[in-house]
Design goal:
By secondary structure, the chain is mainly α. It has a domain at 92-186. 60% of the residues lie in helices and 0% in strands. It has helices at 10-29, 34-49, 51-63, 100-118, 133-145, 147-154, 163-185. Helix 4 (100-118) crosses helix 7 (163-185). The radius of gyration is 19 Å and the shape is globular. The two termini are 29 Å apart.
């Protein structure tokens, strides 16, 4: 890993720290816990990267005339049943809804990028040195924010992401990588 040589990297890092410290202090002043802040922070990231992206793609397909307008309703689990334990309280439940495809695809892309970086594969096309400290930190942050999806990759039953969603997400991730390769060559 290369040392950070540009002091400009400090600007987004300091903004990131200031925002998170400020929002955490707001939760603490409202007598809420840091865990409540973290859960809400994660959910803001998950919502913006799943339902907003899903909605954007739905609008594009509608404008192109390839799809009809429809609402995707997902199941919400709020109660603990007889087969659940307190250790499962608050866990994501997954089904075959397409709403889980973008979030799973983002997680798979991020995990693949981190794995390739750890294995020593670095892209030097475009004159860069490959992955930098900022990219690694941001990738780890995305994985932490999508930790519920990560656990869902290995979960079983309603707490696991169905294989059909994983296959669709993997296909979407591969198409995105191919699109990026195609646009970087042109």
């Amino acid at each position: 890993m290369h040392a950070v040589q540009e002091p400009a990297i400090l600007i987004p890092f300091v903004l990131f720290l200031i925002y998170n410290i400020y929002s955490t202090s707001e939760y603490l002043r409202a007598d809420l816990s840091i865990r409540a802040w973290w859960n809400n922070h994660k959910m803001c990231r998950v919502i913006s990267m799943t339902s907003w992206l899903f909605g954007f793609l739905s609008v594009i397909l509608k404008l192109l005339g390839l799809s009809e307008t429809m609402f995707e309703v997902t199941k919400k689990d709020q109660t603990i049943g007889a087969d659940d334990t307190n250790s499962n309280a608050g866990r994501f439940t997954f089904d075959e809804s397409p709403i889980f495809v973008p979030g799973t695809a983002i997680l798979l892309l991020t995990l693949a990028a981190l794995a390739l970086m750890l294995l020593g594969f670095r892209s030097t096309t475009g004159g860069g040195d490959g992955s930098g400290v900022g990219e690694i930190i941001c990738s780890v942050w995305v994985v932490l924010c999508f930790w519920s999806f990560f656990k869902g990759l290995f979960g079983r039953g309603k707490y696991g992401i169905p294989l059909s969603v994983i296959y669709k997400s993997g296909t979407l991730a591969l198409l995105f990588v191919q699109f990026c390769k195609w646009t970087s060559m042109g």
